[in-house]
Amino acid sequence: MKNRKPIVIIGAGPAGMGAAIEAARAGASCILIDEGRFPGGQVYRKNSKEFQVKEKEMLTAEQKRGKKLHEELEEVSDKIKILTSTSVLGVWKNREVMWSSNDASGVIEAEQIIIATGAYERPVPFPGWTLPGVMTVGGVKSFIKTMFIKPGETALIAGTGPLLISTANKLHDIGVNVLAVLEAGSPSWASPDFINQWGDADFAHDIAADLLELKQNNIPILFNHTVFKINGKDEAESVTYGALNPENWKPLEDTTKTVNADLVALGFGFVPNTELTELAECKHEFYPGIGWTVIRDEWMQTSQQGIFAVGDGARISGAIIAEEEGRIAGIKAAQNCEAIQAVDAEKRSEKYFSRIHSFEKFRKHLNEVTSVKSGLLELATHKTLVCRCEEVRLSDVDKAITEGAGDLQSVKLLTRLGMGACQGKNCSPSMGMYLCEKLNKTAYQVGRINPRPPVKPVTLGALANMTITKDSHQNDSYDAINTGGYYEK
Amino acid sequence: MKNNEVIIIGGGVIGCAVAYYVAKKGINVMLIDQPKRGRATSASAGGLWPLGESIGLGCGVIFHKAMIEKGLLPADSHIPPQLPKSFLDFAIQSNEMFPSLTGAIKELSGIDFEYEETSLLFLMYDDADVAFAKTLYGNCPCGNSRIDWLTPFEVKHSEPAITHNILGALRFNGDNQVNPYALADGYREAARKLGATIITHTEVTGIKINAGRVSGVETKAGFFPSKYVVNAAGAWAAQVGEMAGVEIPVYPVRGQIIGTEAMPKILSACISTNDCYIAQKHHGEIIIGSTTEETGFNTDITPSAINSLCKGAVRAIPFLEKAKVKRVWSGLRPGTADELPILGKVKGVEGYINACGHFRTGILNSPLTGLLISEMINEDQLSFPIEPFLLSEERLQSLTNNENSNHKTSIQ
Amino acid sequence: MKTSEKDLRINKGVIRGKEIEIIVDGESVKAFEGESVAAALFANGQRISRSTTKENSLRGMYCGIGMCFECVMTIDNIPNTRTCQTFVREGMFIETQQAEGKWKTV
User: Fold this and answer.
1) What is the average pLDDT across A432-445?
2) A203: pLDDT strictly greater than 70
């Protein structure tokens, strides 16, 4: 094999781990980069190595899958350069990857890039959503899982999708008083028929098990309900909730009740983290209620040659499909590097393709039942902060619209919406939808808030100390980066 | 609908300034704008450096050093080309308009464009810088009444955050700064208060000409009649000129720029070195610029530019090492080969007026440009001789054939 | 050492890293190696990380995955440090951040 530049895999969650495992098995040179201290991503996140955790006798299906994936990665870890505690600041379409770690930064020229940056919770602004004590369900779940700390005493959980249920159970397990789960929809996954219909999909079993547990835990689930307002002076103290119109999820104002709770966990589905695919100028498409996704071919290749996008960072499908997508991309990238032949690639990827195809119908179904409806936007009042970083209120956005702003970029220029540290992640999905509704425009017309490098925080000192690696086999500047020691033998 | 006498194409700082000054004369004016990615106003540091810019500081000196490093200029040519006296006079007169402008704009629009009297410091790192500074100190076109030579001790005393590894600094008094976005917003809102019509998010598709005279502007939102059309389209001025059959030798020159997170006040002056310039803005963020690159309408940012600007910033202010970069972005300056703006009427098309080609000094030169254009339209006596900036046939020829243009070479 | 009336740590099934002390707004607070700064503070009942620049409103950890920048505090004199992504160290100096925070500039 020729002396090739490496395959760079960005993100070490299920998709990135799957990609790295397959690329390494195929004999390709590869670098796996993750911001965290260890591989695992959000769903298969590992505990701090300083902690000794007694493994439960009965692992959940999800824990079993995570364990297996970690074992597989460990088996090939001597063939992969794993850069943990390392952020990717930008990706260019000529396949340059800019990274930073502590006080250093660098540019790697990659042969192939696999972007596996995962997803984050879709923001839905409403009064009080910025108070301390209000967290995302994913944040709550991983916080408990890795830190073993109660994030509050009395919790209310709201949003849409099966993650609400597993989070409720998890909180109950550790002794938090969970008042209720408020599900904005009336999804089919919550019906008893669901397991009969989708029984062959792993994920359906997980949901059924979680629902059963919820029932045993005596946690009520209210359908077509959500949080209207969170009250409190310094932190969340009480929650006003109510019913939604099942058709469009518009809040029904005369249905409200208020309960005391110091923890509110919110999860209105997920948004793919497409910053890097946007920077690389890959093509994206929009699905109403779901959002922007990366356009890919069956091998997970984006519209930019040599750049792949896999897992929830490309399109929300959950951890199981993410892993299969990652594996397929890892195999194809190895083939593109001439580490393996096309026939071999076909053979290696066969079972992953067949798994994905068997999930396809289920995935479409799940997309339908985890999408959000625009009535939720009416939860925000004029005074509600819609951009948490720059403290932009809905009334500021309305004023910009009056002044002629017809797309997100123009609203940004007039209001500073999306100009803060999170680069618009917490306002762009909701305000994109808002502009579409208000101006009767398509998501393509409304556009997006363009991400700008660096997409992760980095010091000037680190950028001043930048190594531009032309030939990755010489002077690997990233040799010094701490790999977290997780797989060190 | 009232009849517009004047339509301005372009809503950057120049277009907005022209709208303000024309509206101030009581003339019916409309501004049509389509915000474009890469507009220079949004990638400006907001420096008002009439002296610095005229003698090649700011971006000039950075570009000059890069040219030497690439072997495109002899190593001993430590003096960036100075611009003609007429440019310096123009810039100084425009700069002097800011103190009164700040009150006028605030009163009309409520917008404070954060005018700050900072002065500009040129840091001398080595003997070559000292030699350069000596030349400037001795030969400044306005004499050295506005320049102070500071010893390292004096620099340390007035700007403790600046590195102690310097041989001295030149202070240019009267070189100040504003917030460039607020300035453009301020002009625009003040113009609106004075009766100007502002149409945003609207693409101009043509300029209508009848018998050699402008009769209006075609847009995606319909036709708007007018007697005068002002081309204030920045880096896109050539395309707008073409709509009127006028050749405008303006081309985009990319500048990449870095903004930090908001910091406490650590700088009272703006800084120019041969690596970068540095300005701390009112909100606390520090702006570090800038490259000079001819890459067409490409607004990409590049790792090597980020690296060299960060190196330059940390060298000048070591403490910045710990500061976080919030964003890197780029803008397209409306470049001209002789680095002078293109102003005024052209032969052959009655009613067409240029207000373009401001290159690196659009913010600084916006008030005088706006005033002159308004005087031209109102047929008043002009406050400044416009001849050096007209697009005469000779100038057009020299601009289009100019082999000496610095910027024809792309430097990253 | 400041002893909070509540310690929200779950001790069943887990042995934490070494116990250390961190300094939070001038007071000594118990923490364990392997905990994020946000976790150590939450365990001690402190969920407020900062107050905002424009409206002086209070914020705390929201996303928990390093994406929202709500949990930033001033750590060892560096403002805007994400507490959910930063791990405790003996003697770490942590301050509730007001607006842009205070830098030690010279």
Assistant:
1) 95
2) yes
Distance CA B242, CA C21 (A): 70
For residue range B245-270, list pLDDT tens digits in order: 999 999 999 999 999 998 888 999 99
Arithmetic mean of pLDDT, B364-378: 97
Model ipTM? 0.94
Decide if C63 contacts C74 (C-beta within 8 A). Answer: no
Two structure tokens written together for A229: 């307002």
Give A115's strand partners. A10, A309
Query: A55-64, long-range: CB within 8 Å, 24+ apart, which pairs?
Result: A56/C13, A60/A206, A60/A209, A61/A202, A61/A205, A61/A206, A61/A209, A62/A206, A62/A319
Domain with CATH 1.10.10.1100 in chain A: 380-446
Rg (CA), chain B: 21
Q: Kindly report the nearest CA distance between residue A463 and chain B, in angstroms.
A: 5
- Identity at B370, one-letter amino acid code: G
DSSP assignment of A434-472 equals HHHHHHT--HHHH--PPP-S-SS--BHHHHHSEEEESST
Q: What is the distance between the alpha carbons of residues A303 and B186, in angstroms, rounded to a whole number?
A: 42
At the fourth CATH level, the homologous superfamily of domain A123-268 is FAD/NAD(P)-binding domain (3.50.50.60)
Position C2 pLDDT exceeds 50 = no
Please, what is the average pLDDT of chain B?
90
* Rounded Cα distance, A413 and B12, in Å: 12
Q: A256 to chain B, minimum CA–CA distance in Å?
A: 41
Map tokens 């792309």 to a residue. Answer: B410
Do the Cβ atoms of C62 and A234 come within 8 Å?
Answer: no
Contact at CB, B264 and C78, closer than 8 angstroms: no
The arrangement of secondary structure in A380-446, i.e. its CATH architecture, is Orthogonal Bundle (1.10)
Q: How far is CA A187 from the centre of its chain?
A: 21
C63 in contact with chain A, both atoms CB, cutoff 8 A:
yes
If contacts are CB pairs under 8 Å, which of residues 236-275 in chain A contact chain B?
A: none
Measured between beta carbons, the chain C residues lying within 8 angstroms of A461 are none
Q: Give the pLDDT confidence of C12-38 residue by residue, as tens digits.
A: 889 999 999 999 999 999 999 999 999
CA distance A399 to A411: 9
Chain B neighbors (3+ CB pairs < 8 Å): A, C
C51: chain A residues, CB-CB within 8 Å: none
Q: What is the DSSP pairing of strand B286-289 with strand B277-280? A: antiparallel
* Domain boundaries for CATH 3.50.50.60 within chain A: 7-120+271-368, 123-268
The model's pLDDT over B102-159, given as tens digits with 9 standing for 90+, comes to 999 999 999 999 999 999 999 999 998 898 888 888 877 666 778 999 999 999 999 9
**Residues contacting residue A134 through CB under 8 Å, at least 6 positions apart:** A128, A230, A236, A264, A266, C62
Domain C19-98 has CATH 3.90.76.10: no
Domain A7-120+271-368, CATH among 3.50.50.60, 3.30.470.20, 3.30.70.360, 3.30.2350.10: 3.50.50.60
